């Protein structure tokens, strides 16, 4: 049982894409937040970012398949410093925003470190954030309705990123450093225990091939 879980965790972590993420600008509906994290998990995005909406962060939706457990969400107060910070880390920030410089989302190279900026359900991406982004992208709309639901837009773009990365062989070899892979394996397999070790500032114990702990600290 533990071994099967270990194998699944190792397989999923070996497909994770640390250079693919999203930034949500005040997305406030729980079902949208949860659905976006679920798509992030499905394509292997390792983490997500969010600007806290005025009314506070939405709770997670119970039907999300607990994606928030596997895709940590980092919250930020202000959008422009967050965009600038991601750009300093080497990410191209793509704002999903209809502007004169917007291009079809399929024209972009998602094999580069990429952050997809998505806007609030009612207002969309702010003008300032769209300007600060490296590129504006749009999913062509050919119907009567002007825009998609934000989680649908996120999934559409994330799966194009997955397609391009698959073609480029980015799911063939682990993209995460071995030390991070080992750390996350322990945290995903033993989440409660991992917290205890973190609180104590102690290193995680080794795992054997079946995912069993080889040596436990005497106090745990
Ligand atoms: N009135 C808003 C506007 O003008 O942007 C509509 C917001 S839309 C319901 C919510 C978010 O979904 C947008 O900010 C964007 O992130 C994403 N989105 C919806 N339709 C899109 C499309 N066709 N192309 C790209 N992103 C889209």
What does this structure look like?
38% of the residues lie in helices and 14% in strands. It is α/β, with parallel strands linked by helices and 220 residues long. The chain folds into two domains: 1-16 and 174-220, no CATH class; 18-167, SPOUT methyltransferase, trefoil knot domain (Alpha/beta knot), CATH 3.40.1280.10. A seven-stranded parallel sheet has the order 3-2-1-6-4-7-5, with helices on both faces. Helix 1 (2-15) crosses helix 6 and helix 2 packs parallel to helix 5. The longest helix has 18 residues, at 150-167. The two termini are 23 Å apart. Bound molecules: S-adenosylmethionine. S-adenosylmethionine (SAM) binds next to helix 5.
What pattern of helices and strands is seen along the backbone? HEHEEHEEEHEHHH
CATH architecture of the largest domain: 3-Layer(aba) Sandwich
Shape: globular
Work out the radius of gyration: 19 Å
